[in-house]
């Protein structure tokens, strides 16, 4: 402070006093506001109580009403606990249902694969039957041709032997 001039020191002291004065003013204003808020709240409580007294007539009815509200609150809390328990049970059942649905979907997929495999097998079997039927048809045609050739051959052999076989006269 020795290096500062007297004007600077006086200026600093004035600013310090102004700041202190401002702080004191703000503290007083804060306390007044706090006190008036408390008084307002207290007045509001009194007004509310007077309104209730006018509405219900006496304190007994008010106390009865408060008792009913407390009882309703307790019942609501019990119901909330029951609802939470039911929520847990429903979540568990929902999880089981989802697991069952997943199992059903897996089983459905497995059955679908089996159906597709059986359809493929049926298609292959139909193809084999068609081929065998075609072969059987060809064999029947060949057998018919062989029978006709055999009959023709027998006819030729019998016609070569004149005494043994003859065509009956009509």
Automatic annotation (TrEMBL):
Keyword Transmembrane helix: yes
Keywords attached to this entry: Membrane, Transmembrane, Transmembrane helix
Domain of life of the native organism: Bacteria
Segments crossing the lipid bilayer: 6-27
UniProt name for this protein: Uncharacterized protein
Organism name: Candidatus Jettenia caeni
């Amino acid at each position: 402070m020795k290096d500062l001039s007297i004007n600077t020191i006086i200026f600093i002291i004035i600013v310090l006093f102004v700041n202190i004065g401002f702080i004191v003013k703000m503290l007083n204003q804060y306390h007044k506001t706090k006190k008036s808020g408390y008084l307002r709240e207290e007045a509001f409580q009194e007004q509310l109580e007077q309104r209730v007294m006018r509405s219900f007539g006496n304190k007994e009815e008010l106390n009865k009403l408060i008792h009913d509200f407390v009882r309703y609150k307790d019942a609501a809390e019990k119901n909330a606990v029951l609802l939470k328990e039911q929520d847990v049970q429903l979540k568990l059942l929902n999880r089981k249902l989802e697991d069952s649905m997943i199992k059903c979907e897996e089983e459905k997929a497995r059955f679908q694969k089996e159906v597709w495999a059986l359809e493929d097998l049926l298609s292959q079997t139909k193809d084999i039957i068609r081929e065998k039927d075609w072969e059987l048809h060809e064999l029947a045609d060949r057998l018919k041709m062989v029978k006709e050739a055999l009959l023709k051959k027998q006819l030729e052999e019998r016609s070569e032997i004149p005494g043994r076989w003859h065509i009956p006269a009509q």
